[in-house]
Amino acid sequence: MFSxxxxxxxxxxxxxxxTGMAFTSATVALPWYVSQLTQSNVLIGILPALQLGxxxxxxLLLINFMLHRPRRLKYYRRGAxxxxxxxxxxxxxxxxxxxxxEIVLPxxxxxxxxxxxCGGFTGLAFFDVVGRIVPRRQLSTFFSLRxxxxxxxILAAGVVVRQVIERSAGSLDLVWLxxxxxxxxxxxxxxxxxxxxxxxxxxxxxxxxxGQDLRRIRVIVSRNAPFRTYLIIRILTMLSFVAMPFxxxxxxxxxxxxxxxxxxxxxxxxxxxxxxxxxxxxLGARGGGWLLLVVMTLVSVVPPVLSLATQMLTVAHVAPxxxxxxxxxxxVFIGAVTGGQEITFSVLAIEVSPVEERIxxxxxxxxxxxxxxxxxxxxxxxxxxxxxEALFGVAGVAALAATILAVAAQRRFARPRAELSxxxxxxxxxxx
Length: 432
Fold this sequence. Notes:
single chain, mainly alpha, 17 helices, 0% strand
């Protein structure tokens, strides 16, 4: 039965969580802070990889465990308690020794990894409970409200991040505020969803061994051409993603942009996320996931191209003001790609997977993507050993290859518009 109370708590969960994570975002704030502590691009890449991908790593192993537990919200609450505690400890560390890299970096790595891995429990429980408390016809409204108000929260967080970065030119004493706000808002998000009243026990499915699941996955990948293509394009997209944490570092170190411009990248990123949501929703409603994929992969080519263009203009001694505006435009496109990926891959995950086996499709995909997120430090290694330009070149080639495959897939697999009318968006993210 539809419960307005559950619906409201679920929306509040998304708004608070999204806002909280924006204060220590993996695209701007976190890479910037770590770059103040170390010159190693490998270390700069590790934390965004853990933050964004750690939650997905254990999901394939957790599917059977969660499927055979009659009450699943309690696992969300337990995981949320651990995650909130990790952020609280990070607040203390950054407050006491914000510039002691030998203490802060290990704490960031260990606590971020623990919080993210616990997201495997919270993520699976979240989607299971949402599927039982929100009617299918209300799903798009549910996630749209989370994204809309969460976007406003991200914008507000971006303004705070900008102020902290600008005022941290000679000292990192204010950085603790970003971690405190992340802890406060994410904890409010965890609490909101913990207040949801879980409906009756879900249907219990026959137990399967891990070996049976793996054999079934092998058959699915070999026989389901749309799903196989979807996976290949996601892998290429992840290869282009390895450059994402390094654009802000590139602007500060290589382009030597003023602190105010680098700080403004957080606001530009948010503007890209919010502004593009209207376009992604419009495209998805009219052309489905495959059309979304074509446009999203095409847009993902722009950031590496713009980054290389700014370097060429710098060498040509073009006015710094123009370079600064191009740098901010780069982050607008990064924001657009980030928002587009969330919607695109969510819609496609539904379109390429049958209802009866969707959990195994999603569990395998999320675990694979979690592993691929760990490639991000390799992007830092490439930047260390060769150059940032080489890293952005690899990202651009991967994005272009993904675009070519997406165009071919759209022509081959796209369904008629009439078949897309009942497609719901199940956001494939931690969301908890």
